Amino acid sequence: MRLFRPKPKTTSVRILVIEDSEVDRKVAGKAIELGGDTALTANDGTTGLAMAKEYLPDLIILDLRLPLMSGQEICKRIKGDKDYSWIPVILLTASSGVITPENMVELKANDLLMKPFNSDELLAKVNKFLGI
């Protein structure tokens, strides 16, 4: 069981982007790679959850509205499993009314990023949780 994220070595960290919008997925992936890290991507909830468990990313960027499994369900499953609960999760949403501070606490999500987002906003949040 991992309770904390180990300090990165000389290799890049892995960030999983679970986002059904191809444009947002590409923007996030490109920003992450330009920041020197490795972007893993999934375009639906089921694939995203499987990748999170297989690759144990250092951080997950998670859209709330996904096909096959919602972002809320994925977040609950990750944060509810002691083997994965240490992974920080940044939620993505286009609707301000979709998530409340109470929902954030309930989901145990670490942060929220509103769409449309830009690369600088995304990297600032990523760096915050990776301790950079």
Structural class: alpha/beta
Average pLDDT, to the nearest integer? Answer: 87
Order of helices and strands: EHEHEHEHEH
Q: How many DSSP-defined strands?
A: 5
Low-confidence stretches: 1-10
Rg over alpha carbons: 13 Å
Strand content: 15-25%
Multimer state: single chain
Share of helical residues: 25-40%
The strand order across the widest sheet is 2-1-3-4-5
Distance between the termini: 24 Å
Number of helices: 5
The general outline is: globular
Main sheet summary: 5 strands, parallel
Write a structural description:
- The protein has 132 residues and is of the alpha/beta class.
- It has five helices and five strands.
- Helix 1 links the parallel strand 1 (14-18) and strand 2.
- Helix 1 crosses helix 5 and helix 2 runs parallel beside helix 3 (71-79).
- The longest helix has 13 residues, at 22-34.
- The protein is globular.
- The relative contact order is 0.19.
Key structural traits:
5-stranded parallel beta sheet; alpha/beta; 18% strand; 132 residues; disordered N terminus
In a nutshell, what does this entry contain?
With about 130 residues, the protein is α/β, with parallel strands linked by helices. The chain has helices at about 20-35, 45-55, 70-80, 100-105, 120-130; strands at about 15-20, 40, 60-65, 90-95, 110-115.
